[in-house]
Amino acid sequence: MTLTEQIYAQALVLIQDTDSENLPMLKMLCRSAESALKLQLRPGLTPEDCKADFIAAASLYALAALSEADELGNIQSIAAGNFKLNRSGGNPAACCLRYQAEVIMRPYMKDQFAFMGV
């Protein structure tokens, strides 16, 4: 099973919605989250070095992005000059998922500070 497939499987466990029409988009977002996280790893680290955390964080990032994509219907206004997009509400669930992913990956990321123990 590839890393992307493992991230996708974890995301499916988290959403418990295998009938969703958004599953193809979720798979694409899992690939994107994997790529983005790989670029942020400290030099010398690979996803395999922190595999369980990497998979968990990437799946949370993908779910946050999917949650925000579902919110695209709440657009209040769009402007073309200096492109602006205003959405109503906000997505606290996506923010929470993204924050949890950041917390999980903090010890493995470039230019990050985290307490590892005292």
Structure described in brief:
The protein is mostly helical and 118 residues long.
Give a description of the structure.
Helix 1 (3-15) packs across helix 2 (23-40) and helix 3 runs antiparallel to helix 4. This protein has helices at residues 3-15, 23-40, 51-70, 92-105, and strands at residues 75-79, 84-87. Strands 1-2 form a two-stranded antiparallel sheet. Strand 1 (75-79) and strand 2 (84-87) form a beta hairpin. The radius of gyration is 16 Å and the shape is globular. The protein is mainly alpha-helical and 118 residues long.
List the helices and strands and how they pair.
Elements: H1 3-15, H2 23-40, H3 51-70, E1 75-79, E2 84-87, H4 92-105
Antiparallel strand pairs: 1-2
Helix pairs in contact: 1-2, 1-3, 2-3, 3-4
